[in-house]
Amino acid sequence: MEGEILKILTVIRDFIWGLPLIIILVGTGIFLTIRLKGLQVRGLFYSLNLAFIKRKEDDNQAGDISHFQALMSALAATVGTGNIVGVAVAIATGRELVLDRELLKQVAEFFRKRGMELGENNQRQAFIPRDATPIPNPVGTAPGFIVAHQGKYVVSLPGVPHELYHLTENAVIPFLLKAFGIETLIKTRLLKTAGVGESTIDRLISDLEESENPTVGLAAHLGAVDVRVSARAKNLKEAERLLAQMEQRLRDRLGDMIYGTDGETIEQVVVDLLIDRALSLALLETHTGGRLASRLTSIPGGYVILAQALCTGIERVSSVLPGGLGRKPKPSRNLAENLAARIREKGQSDVGLAVIGDQDPDVGPYSKRTGNTYLGISMSTGAVSKKIQLGGINEYARVRITSIALDMLRRHLLQAPESSV
In this predicted structure, what is the pLDDT of residue 419? Predict the structure, then answer.
């Protein structure tokens, strides 16, 4: 039986990876060429010029390189320190590789804390070119190093994104500022929003985005938009002053759309609000797969405030929350408020939050039908509800819906009188 299945799969594989695949690839290429009006041909020489030739406007600036050279230099220095780049840099600069025992201790300690065995390959990460400045890596295993050679610096860093960003921000940039005597520093602050569209925010602050210092820009993520403010100044105090001024102007425009700054998350803010007000929360989710409960309990204190979390289909709600709802109640704002009150009562909590909506897998943001979701919040002072024109059970929908639900809960808690909570 197994042999027959294998033969069938082999025939299918050979067929798909033969003429059909060639037709699909060539056909797609022809379609895109026509649809984009030969963009790859029209822009070929411009892209090659941009990649390989130094920008003319910067000819007089020492050290200027082409985009391609900058990309290759960055890639070459982030493909593995001890095993690849360390050897290459040592050869290129005429040095030998030596074991840095402090780096080895740091790598060994990283493995020890996680109950893992330190392998020979990991020990090689502690070898760096002689006389190089080591860069310890507190967020990973592979350290980095800086080599001074013929009046220039070779900086080697691990390629893992979060390690690369951490070492660049906390070690490389301070080193370069000091080495080159650069007095100007750049300080950045993020103002976080959730459940608000990028176009809405852009419409409210478009004129501020034209500011030269501090600069203001938007970074959209799944279910969230960050407002990035970057200030240039000669010292930290001046940079903080510029950031504070622009932040206040942005807050005046966006108001309570902003839930936090920098590393704060919407779930952390909601959990902190509930803890500060000594409130408990009960959840009902019908089509978000328990994502809301998962996001809250991933935060320290999340289990403290969560009295009950119920994840069930809309057709089973009446059996777990009895009260004449019918076999399969139709989602609506009234039903969301009703269920929020019932889950609050069932969980004996201070706040009830119900998220109900379309469970059809064919519904979603990129489908013909976007679907609907209804949010309801119930407290002792009353209930509120909201309709979202987005439903379905795909990942994008679940993240965006739960982000909107968390932001709605946050705003409701902020507006609720202290006496009611």
Answer: 45
Q: Looking at the structure, do residues 415 and 275 belong to the same domain, yes or no?
A: yes
Same-domain pairing of 413 and 272: yes
Instruction: State the residue range of the domain holding 415.
Output: 266-420
Q: Does residue 205 lie within any of the structural domains?
A: yes
Instruction: Check: pTM over 0.85? Answer yes or no.
Output: no
- On the question of pLDDT at 80 being above 70, the answer is no
The tally of domains found in the chain comes to 4
The CATH number of residue 391's host domain is 3.90.950.20
Task: State the SS3 of the chain.
Answer: CHHHHHHHHHHHHHHHCCHHHHHHHHHHHHHHHHHCCCHHHHCHHHHHHHHHCCCHHHCCCCCCCCHHHHHHHHHHCCCCHHHHHHHHHHHHCCCCEEECHHHHHHHHHHHHHCCCCCCHHHHHHHEEECCCEEECCCCCCCCEEEEEECCEEEEECCCCHHHHHHHHHHHHHHHHHHHCCCCCEEEEEEEEEECCCHHHHHHHHCCHHHCCCCEEEEEEECCEEEEEEEEEECCHHHHHHHHHHHHHHHHHHHHHHEEEECCCCHHHHHHHHHHHCCCCEEEEECCCCCHHHHHHHCCCCHHHHEEEEEECCHHHHHHHCCCCCCCCCCCCHHHHHHHHHHHHHHHCCCEEEEEEECCCCCCCCCCCCCCCEEEEEEECCEEEEEEECCCCCCHHHHHHHHHHHHHHHHHHHHHCCHHHC
Give residue 151's pLDDT band: very low, low, confident or very high (50, 70, 90): confident
Give the CATH number for residue 205: 3.30.70.2860
